[in-house]
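Section 5: illustrative case.
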């Protein structure tokens, strides 16, 4: 069972720009059946959970482990897992966290909450991050070897470093020249 993949679904949900039902197509990606079966009720449930999952990342990034755990436990209670074995042929057996027949949002959120809970137990909530680029705000899971990641992507890191460099350069140029 790939718990990291389930944890990444939580990241994808928090970072998703959800404004209308059709936005779920991109969120669900290769799981096209989820987008096809999603209803307005699922969309609204995912929007509410999006905020709650962001809170988990904010608590973790701020070192408030107990609050991150409390919110994850509430999400696990709201979206319980029902493990099942699934596969497409006799050699492709794998685990899923919920059974088909659940609402799309329940299935998606059970996996997201479970994945983050396992991630927190294995790596600690200090590995939950919020992008340091003030224009971004996306969340991420810090997979660096020394827990030093500060940005959600290379793009944000580069953009932030270039902006800081330009600001230092402007500040140096605006300083009065030393008197000889």
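Designed sequence:
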């Amino acid at each position: 069972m790939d718990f990291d993949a389930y944890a990444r679904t939580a990241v994808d949900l928090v970072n998703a720009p959800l404004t209308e039902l059709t936005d779920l197509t991109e969120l669900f990606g290769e799981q096209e059946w989820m987008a096809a079966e999603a209803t307005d009720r699922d969309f609204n449930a995912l929007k509410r959970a999006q905020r709650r999952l962001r809170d988990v990342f904010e608590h973790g990034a701020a070192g408030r482990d107990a609050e991150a755990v409390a919110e994850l436990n509430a999400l696990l209670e709201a979206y319980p897992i029902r493990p099942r074995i699934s596969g497409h042929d006799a050699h492709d057996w794998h685990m899923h966290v919920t059974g088909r027949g659940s609402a799309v949002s329940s299935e998606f959120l059970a996996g997201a909450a479970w994945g983050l809970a396992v991630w927190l137990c294995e790596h600690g909530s200090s590995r939950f991050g919020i992008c340091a680029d003030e224009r971004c705000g996306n969340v991420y899971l810090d997979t660096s070897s020394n827990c030093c990641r500060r940005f959600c992507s290379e793009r944000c890191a580069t953009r932030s470093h270039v902006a800081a460099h330009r600001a230092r350069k402007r500040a140096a140029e605006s300083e009065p020249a030393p008197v000889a």
